[in-house]
Amino acid sequence: MDRIAQLTTRPPGREIAYDPAAAPPSLQVRAAQVLEGNWTGRSTVPSRGLYPHQWSWDSAFIAIGLRHLSPLRAQTELETLLAAQWGDGRIPHIVFNPSVPLDAYFPSPDFWRSSAAGRAAGAPRTVQTSGIVQPPVHALAVWLVHLADPGLSRARGFLRRAYPRLAAWHRYLVARRDLGGGGLVSVVHPWEQGMDNSPCWDRPLSRVTPAPARSFRRADLDHGAPEDRPTDLDYGRYVRLAADYRDGGYADGQGEFAVEDPAFNALLIASEHALARIAGELGASGRERAARAERLTAALVERLWDPAAGMFLCRDVRAGEPIPERGVSGLIPLLLPGLPRDLAATLVRTVCGPHFGLGGTTRLVPSYDLLGEAFDAHRYWRGPAWFNTNWLLERGLRLHGERGRADALRKGILHTAGASGFAEYVDPYTAQACGTTGFGWTAALALDLLHDRPSGDRNGLTAIKGGDRG
Question: Is residue 56 within 8 Å of 81, Cβ to Cβ?
Fold first, then answer.
């Protein structure tokens, strides 16, 4: 019986034994129950109602938590996603479950038409997917899942089978998505960056003519309050961008929206470090991967660092200029081991300063500048705090020696996750739950923090810096 079964099934009258050093036992049980309830047999949905399919970066974060309960299930989660990879190397942002009705989610498979519109790009014939991508956190997830049970991983050939797919994924991004010519990857749709409705996208999105409201039906409003979700105008622009990309055969570099994003590139760098470790585990040299990570880090600093803002900014490739909005994306490079020390120190000051308020006005880091004109404490990525970005920042703070701040953030994440019912996101001031509850990565990353105790060398990112636990 794996740990999930132990936590989610209990004989009458019997209690489960817990490590007394862990956080409150009920939090671990409840998180495991969320993941069990969202499990479909081969993957985990973010939530049963609002997001009934498999999402790319959600599955990576979910696998990071699942590894503590069932390394086999965590491996299966990632293998299911990787099996939907396109021939050109891209990992699609959604893998659709054919048993889910088409009207349960929009854009649905009949909108993306992946097997037909994506034929030239090598879209799979046996499964329907979207045609865009999400942040490349997958290699880091694969490496951490391997470290959870190296014996099982080696016996199943987990790394041996995952490595070529991950290498192709990174090759696609580096070769096909350097739309600005400066060595960084561009996203071609706000959904690709993952922080869909961030004010950082307002300026480049303003060039996009929205699709008519009557041309689509928003299923998200069936499950979330309108004031928590993107506006109809923004959604119309998202639909237009996606439809144009589809109608162009999912060929890169043609659309009106192209942005170099700090978080997307930072996660690619972290995953390049992880690929170097995976290569070493497989008996190959990881030097080329490590060198690429260093080159990407240098390009990130050169192109996106803004000393006046004290953080990284997005760059509008089409306009050829930085986007002067402070989003949490610009803090995520703190997780990089190769970040210059002075930049890391500046990022810490920015995280704790008036724009993000960590340790002062906020318990968790908001998704957008508290002082920004577009700040909204409840609306999707325009101010609420998200658990995945805070998990990444907790790792970054710890990696750069900010143990006290990392400990406080860890406690804040765990408390808020439990108190909010594992919410999708929360008001950064009040911690009021927003979006849906029983959210997959919230539960999974809470589990990871429960097991990854500050007193031990179990920081997921020391595994890519040199502190190998395998």
Answer: yes
